[in-house]
Amino acid sequence: MVDNLLFSLGTALPIFLVMCSGYVMKYKKLIDNGFIKKANYMVFYVALPIKLFHDVSMTSFQEYFDLKFIFFVTVITVGGALISWFTGNLLIRDSHQIGAFAQGAFRGNFLYIGFSLMENIIGRIALKGPLAVAIIVPLYNIMSVIILTYAGNSKDKSINLISTLKDIMRNPLIIAITAGIFTSLLPVEVPLVMARTMEYFASIATPLALIAIGASFNFSHTIENLPPALMASAIKLVILPSIAVAAAVAIGYTGEDIVLIYVLTGVPTATVSFIMAAAMEADKDLASNIIMISTLLSVITMTLFVFVFRSTGII
């Protein structure tokens, strides 16, 4: 049991410590808001797309394409969004906060934190990971737009489906994944020089993203929004992943598939949820607090889930 606990701590704690280093560097003025903004831009538009393209292009989709898994991931993503929305309507009195609450409760930071955790657990991204990203990233955007539009923020708003689809198609992560899929299907190999260059960029994506997340922490409005932020974090870190993992085990998934499903549902709230909430006039302070609190608490919940996986022989 001690070995399992140490293994669990060794997978989740380093992620948290790197984020803490970002906060300390910001506090010590080693980095500033300008650096954070540029780092986020570099990760989102350069390093992470290159990492995803590299991982996807090296994946054999003909071998790992799984229609059953696609359906399962779609159901747990949409289902998680609907559960969060329903819970928000049930528990949150201020209608202005419902959209931010719901989005914070279902939209996870699996690309930055989740895949870091997975690499710590199994040594790499799961073989079906790129396939899951190609499904979930568009679903996150679609469900977020729907919820933030109809969750009490503004009665005169309407969903512009064409605009939403254009935004999804312009998303650099979607472009990278699509290009990677086409490359993987071609009967040619990526040149060695190009592959090694992409590996260098891929290697900086995760630490730079974690440092930027930690440096973005702001505790000024945490107390006033603490109850709804804690409720959203509980849904994000405990309730949704417990439902998803239990369903996956019942269906018959094992090993790295279970780890991937947990990563897709149980990691802390994505930082982009703050951007979406601010853009659509939801409660951006609550959105920010959910990100902070879920990230801080995730070191406990991720450790416990990994401990359970390790103790039950899943990993």
What would your notes on this structure say?
The protein is 79% helix and 0% strand. By secondary structure, the chain is mainly α. Helix 1 crosses helix 10. It is globular and about 55 Å long. The model has no long low-confidence stretch (mean pLDDT 80).
Structure, briefly:
Helices cover 79% and strands 0% of the residues. It has helices spanning 2-27, 33-57, 61-64, 67-91, 95-106, 110-122, 129-150, 161-170, 172-185, 192-215, 226-251, 255-266, 272-279, 284-311. The radius of gyration is 19 Å and the shape is globular.
Assign an overall shape: globular
CATH topology (fold) name? Na+/H+ antiporter like fold
The CATH architecture classification is: Up-down Bundle
For the sheet with most strands, the description reads: none
Output the number of helix runs. 14
What's the rounded overall pLDDT mean? 80
* Spans where pLDDT lies below 50 across 5 or more residues: none
User: Would you list the SSEs in sequence order as H and E?
Assistant: HHHHHHHHHHHHHH
User: Given this structure, which CATH class is correct?
Assistant: Mainly Alpha
* Total number of strands: 0
